[in-house]
Request: fold
Amino acid sequence: MSNSANAALYESWGDLWNGDLSITDTIIAEDFTGHLAPLSGTGPDQFHGRQPLNDWISGIHALLPDLSFVLDVGPIADEQYLVVRWKARGTYRGGFPGASPDAVGREITFTGTDILRIADGKFAEYWGDADSLLFIQQLGVREVPAQG
Reply:
């Protein structure tokens, strides 16, 4: 695909992260692979398939039900990759391990960068990098409990 066609795909990616999971099958490749740094610092750092992506997005929206993402820089695209810098904002509802109870109801903002590989007009691979430190500082997390 052309650079401009790949750049145009960002709108759908943003819609997905803003909670429209109904478009997953149309924009995400069946053999999709995601690489990320979990916000909690624990958990898998790679997943495969569409459903784990939907689960990841749903999990974030469970913590911040009104979560929305806006484009900050980009999209920057070539024939194979799309890169964006984004800003997220949402109201914390509770549920993050180690978060202060006082954080419930607090507006949380954080930034990140997505790198996406595109194949056959769909997102095939994703590297996500969010400012986890800023996120957990706003929640008053002093130490993330170990998961065993």
